[in-house]
């Protein structure tokens, strides 16, 4: 699976501003299967050389290159050549969007004047690498990044005209309303970051119809209702749905997701963690369920997540004993179980996990520590077991709270795995 979303993030946030480049220089990294060059290649082609005063971005299936002008090319050169007919529809789209912006404290929209959209602040243009097949050669709008611009307004249906756009970053603005149904026509879009805005309504299912989308970030909005099954059937590498108002159960097909990062924290999700949880793709590195209303037991299949580095189920109402298979989390670095209703002995295998950096089990009903867990106090591992029911240890629950264990000390009924799980 491509990790272009991460590379694009590094590209747009780590490179110097356009003022740091000379009028003749192009900088970047070649990505893809095609030929070389200096630039960033998005897609199957190699990176291309940077345009004058710009940073090279190669988009498409072949070698070669293109130039993208950081900050809309305000201080960079404008590409020479025939009229840029490819940008006519982009002009219409961006002007329609500009008319829907009601507050612009940083003056971003003051640069969105004239037909040369490549000079607009926050708009990034590039020449497609397979442009030789086009009747109207020239640059296209490859991305829009207006993160932290404090723009207020709504999204407009005309944005779907930007069919060459591979990323749309709108983090930390004041956009509201819903996502236009026409977004399904964004045929090249790979990254959609709508985080930290005021969007509302049900989950925007149109995002699941964007054919090439691999990075979906909806966190810190006011979306509500259930999470649709389609989220976990789509080929997404990163799913950020945290800090919304989603409710209902986690879809049972959670295990179908090939994502490396899934964050469902700080919602109103209820019910059990799906049994399919343990059968997620081998690329899963982080999964966070914290601060919901989840109940039941931690599934036996958790042990199949041998490459997971962060597992956080804190601040829920999970109960019962920990499954033995949790000892198979060989890659786990952060395991956060605090503020649940878990009980029983905290066993040796959990505290013996070789990659463990932080283990938090505070505010549960564990009744004892194994020897290996006691040894964590002498290892360079953060270990918080306060507010449990462990005899002889400080900062535990008052005895009356420990007299009745939630769930009656439930030893969860485990669904047998298809094959016995042996930890390597």
Automatic annotation (TrEMBL):
SUPFAM superfamilies: L domain-like (SSF52058). Residues 88-125 form the Leucine-rich repeat-containing N-terminal plant-type domain. The lineage of its organism: Eukaryota, Viridiplantae, Streptophyta, Embryophyta, Tracheophyta. Keywords: Cell wall, Cell wall biogenesis/degradation, Glycoprotein, Hydroxylation, Leucine-rich repeat, Repeat, Secreted, Signal. It comes from the Eukaryota. InterPro entries: Leu-rich_rpt, LRR_dom_sf, LRR_extensin-like_regulator, LRR_N_plant-typ. It holds the Pfam family LRR_1. Residues 1-19 form the signal peptide. This is Cell wall hydroxyproline-rich glycoprotein. Transmembrane segments: none annotated. It comes from Liquidambar formosana (Formosan gum). It is found in: Secreted, Cell wall.
